Amino acid sequence: MRIVFVLAGGAIAPTGGFRIIAGYANELCRRGHDVTLIAPKLVGAKPKTLRGKVRQAFFRSRFVTERNGPFLEEAEISVRVVEGKRVLSAEDFPDADIVIATWWETAEWINNLSDHYAKVHFVQGYEAFPYLPVDRVRAVYELPFRKIAVSQWLRSKLINEHASTGIEVIENAIDFEVFSTPEKKKQARPAVGFLYSVAAMKNSALAIEVCGRLKERFEDLRVLSFGSHKPRGPGKTPSWLEFSENPSPQKIREIYNACDVWLFTSDEEGFGLPILEAMAAGTPVVATRAGAAPQLVHEGNGVLVDADAATITNQTEKILNLGADDWGKMSEECLKTAQRRNWKDATDDFERVLKDTLIQTQAKLTKN
């Protein structure tokens, strides 16, 4: 199949969403499909709020590049960056069998394409953020596309709020070997980590507050974090925070492996990829009940918690105080959970949905 993933302007690594798109692009290319990623050079829809404008300014210098770092592994994958545009139109698209929207605005674009394209909306999060044109965002979830959602929570949200149909759930996968370390052991010096994001729903401020409380209980505690850009503003970056901006896959692996506990503090999440990545590194997770956390985190590999600083601090402290053997058992359970989410199985399901959608589209064209 000739497959096109449609990205918004500024869709960059190392965000979890892009890493998943890149993962499917790599796997589909290895299976012999012709894969293209296309995006406009300019960042998309004009924000409605000052906060949205500030966020857009952050991303203006973070455009899709020709290879987008090391995440696109297959040289045969084509990357098209359309200069001077913020909205893609029909003349920008290559000949293809199937187009895949990866963000609400890209769903609008593919909706305007000829019906000769098979169309799929790959939904990794509920994107009706207050700084965006919410009515337009909500409308795309009601377009008659085949949809792939990354969690049961997201599927339920689309059904309950938009009466969406034709939704397949395919949980995110990871390359286990990228994150795992042989004979992972508890650190000699205690360490916790978290992913930092400016997105309010990620609640990074809660993670920082928890780490501050933990520093009062563990004087030598290391706190590690990474993200697409560093915390900014007064009090945003404590002196004890070891932060890596736009790290390489190798550096991300090192961060996960250096931690005894990973914090996941999101209020809302499509999936929550850092949970799975941390577990692949053998790192127990203390997580709020967002995204796929209820399916991934259970007694033995971590703890599910409410978004309360005191509770998260106490549960994290318990894991940090475990002896090496008990902590090691948790680490083993993490590895087992991560190994069950592999790229082969996920791509089998993803490829099946694409093929089914293409067959249905071709049948409609023949009938008409």
UniProtKB/TrEMBL annotation:
Q: Pfam families, alphabetically?
A: Glyco_trans_1_4
Respond yes or no to whether keyword Transmembrane helix is given for this record: no
GO MF term set? glycosyltransferase activity
Q: Which UniProt keywords apply?
A: Transferase
A Gene Ontology annotation in the biological process aspect, one of them, is: lipopolysaccharide biosynthetic process
- Entry protein name: Glycosyltransferase family 4 protein
